[in-house]
Design goal:
Chain lengths: 273, 369
């Protein structure tokens, strides 16, 4: 990367049809209203950031999108058609991949084995149908190199990778298996500066391949570094969607906090929360 | 991003890994090193008869009987679960098999499959309870350790009319065409042929000292190879590692964790049934103490073989060598001047060293510091 301070490479045309549209989604857990009408869409090749403070409903919303929860009200359109995802598998098969914070990776297993976990390539037939280790190793090395990570070998254990590298493996895996929409749940929350920058660069690479990226974060600066559009959630509702360039970090921050309290802190923190 | 070009294949910060450090990461390394050390120990201290053909067969036989259990236990441990009931399962499957042959008079071709099916069923119950309740398998299978042992006692008294032994299995199976697969020595003709040519030691009357390879050794070797193949070269193997490494991560990735774990419990129980069938036919009787404490020995052999107690790491080959260490020590001590009861001290010591070693290895593999 030459211009490594900017990960943003042009907004997606408004006319492009969204892959997933979530319309007025409500989710109630007993008498608790977790989502009270959230609308959100994601187009191919864009990074749409979903911002919100803790408890705003970000997690519930993405779990609805990835099929873990079913909405109480509201519609999900996938490529224009109404869809209901009964299980995470359904949404995965449709092309929505979610990278949760735990990354679904096993530290003791090699990168290649993790990469193909649950979707192992096989060769041979019948009793001799076996895990094609060579192919798995080759693909893993190639895919990881594409993402800018040079592994010691495909048998390197995931436990030896840094947090950012693990995130990248999880993203590369989702993209390799044909994700059209990639939901990233706080991918940068536990990372250092350098690793954050690597993950943001990965998001940019994935977006260029035409994948729609839903980037969940409560860090305005990370979101602004890479996002095309920004939707702010507060207390289970969307406060609105802004395009890149239409909104300042301060405004975003205020929206996330619901316009309260933070204004007084601003001065002492120098606006860099 | 760093200033390296994206297509670069090597990274200047990664040193070429020396062979020794790559070997260190193999789970079975500890067990292989253990076999070598123990062998050296007995070469020095034991009577030279230990390492003749008949001596080797002598210690491989108990190693094989334990090893069949240990390979099952190792697979289950890699899958993240324990089975403390395998020792009792040997007795229970032995009883069931004995009843099939003696009470119901079934031929082996029927008795053996239904014994396996029955053991698999009991294993599935174990697995089902563990999966459904979410309780540690340790406690659930501890309950079955007692339940199965108790049932074996009660069942034996019922079948034999008051005794805890059921005799006469040999007479009932002697002429069965399937018996040679599960008992006695394999390849007697080959050994006789070798003896004729003077290639193996013979008694003065010309019969070879070793009349064949006991079938359990063949079962043991075949099982170790099949288990290794499954673990390293099939999708199911990857699922076993994944299920043991992290249940949530595995099932989120589409691994059928429940099915894998229940199947592993069934495999382990079937390994116990295999040991039961072999030993019952060989001894000609079954009794309630069969397989006593074998669950611990099998788990120890698996741990010596590099299996982590926390699951997700280990090897069947490791368990194979772990069992051989076991057999060598049990039998080897009789060739020395040491008191045989040193065996238990050795067992505990070996376990402790293996666990410490495995722990260090795990940290190396995962890069923990």
């Amino acid at each position: 990367m030459t211009d490594d301070s900017k990960f943003h490479h042009g907004a997606v045309d408004d006319k492009v049809a969204p892959i997933v549209q979530m319309q007025d989604i409500q989710k109630h857990f007993g008498n608790i209203i977790a989502l009270a009408g959230v609308s959100f869409d994601i187009r191919p090749g864009e990074c749409h950031c979903l911002l919100g403070d803790n408890g705003a409903g970000k997690s519930t919303f993405i779990k609805t999108m990835s099929g873990v929860h079913q909405p109480t009200h509201g519609k999900i359109l996938f490529e224009g058609k109404p869809m209901s995802f009964a299980t995470p598998r359904d949404s995965m098969e449709a092309g929505i991949a979610t990278v949760f914070q735990d990354l679904a990776m096993i530290p003791l297993m090699s990168v290649a084995r993790n990469f193909f976990m649950g979707r192992e390539p096989t060769k041979g037939r019948g009793l001799f149908k076996r895990f094609d280790v060579e192919m798995a190793n080759d693909i893993t090395m190639t895919e990881m190199r594409k993402m800018g990570i040079n592994l010691r070998g495909p048998d390197q254990a995931v436990g030896t990778l840094s947090g950012g590298e693990r995130q990248t493996v999880a993203i590369a895996r989702a993209v390799y298996f044909g994700a059209k929409v990639l939901i990233l749940d706080e991918p940068t929350s536990a990372l250092g500066v350098r690793q954050t920058s690597n993950v943001l660069a990965t998001i940019d690479k994935v977006r260029k391949q035409g994948v729609g990226v839903v980037f969940i974060s409560h860090n305005v600066r990370h979101a602004l570094a890479v996002g095309d559009r920004f939707t702010v959630l507060n207390r289970g509702k969307t406060l609105g969607t802004a395009k890149r360039g239409e909104i300042t970090p301060e405004e975003l921050q205020d929206l996330m906090a619901g316009g309260q309290e933070l204004a007084q802190l601003e001065g002492s923190l120098g606006g860099t929360v | 991003m760093s200033d390296t070009t994206p297509n670069q294949t090597t990274d200047e910060r990664i040193k070429a890994e020396p062979l020794i450090s790559r070997l260190m990461k193999r789970p079975e390394l500890g067990a292989i090193a253990g076999v070598i050390l123990v062998a050296i120990f007995f070469v020095i201290t034991a009577d030279s008869a230990m390492f003749t053909a008949s001596g080797i067969i002598n210690f491989l036989t108990p190693a094989a009987q334990l090893g069949i259990l240990a390979i099952g236990a190792a697979l289950l441990m890699i899958g993240g679960e324990f089975d403390l009931s395998i020792g009792s399962m040997v007795a229970f499957a032995g009883l069931f098999f004995g009843v099939c042959v003696m009470v119901w008079g079934l031929p082996l071709i029927v008795a053996i499959p239904i014994t396996f099916a029955f053991a698999g069923f009991v294993g599935a119950i174990n697995g089902f309870i563990v999966i459904r309740s979410g309780l540690p398998s340790f406690i659930v299978t501890l309950a079955f350790l007692f339940i199965l042992r108790g049932l074996s006692l009660v069942g034996l008294k019922w079948a034999s009319g008051g005794s805890t032994q059921l005799r006469g299995v040999r007479d009932a199976t002697e002429n069965d065409w399937l018996a040679p697969v599960f008992s006695g020595d394999a390849f007697p003709g080959f050994f006789a042929w070798l003896a004729e040519r003077g290639l193996v030691e013979t008694f003065s009357n010309g019969t070879p000292k070793v009349t064949g390879i006991p079938v359990e050794i063949l079962w043991f070797v075949v099982l170790a190879l099949v288990a290794t193949y499954v673990l390293l070269r099939t999708p199911a193997g990857n699922w076993i590692f994944a299920a043991g490494g992290d249940t949530t991560a595995a099932s989120n990735s589409g691994v059928p964790v429940k099915r894998i774990k229940i199947s592993l419990f069934m495999v382990t129980a079937c390994c116990a049934a295999l040991v039961a069938i072999i030993t019952v036919i060989d001894a000609g009787s079954t009794d309630a103490r069969r397989g006593f404490q074998k669950e611990f020995e099998a788990i120890i052999a698996a741990v010596i073989g590099g299996c982590l107690l926390t699951g997700g790491y280990g090897s069947a080959i490791g368990a194979f060598f772990g069992s051989i260490i076991f057999g060598m020590v049990v039998i080897g001590l009789t060739y020395t001047n040491f008191d045989q009861d040193w065996f238990q001290v050795f067992l505990g010591g070996m376990l402790l060293i293996a666990v410490l070693f495995n722990n260090a290895i795990r940290k190396r593999v995962t890069g923990e510091r």
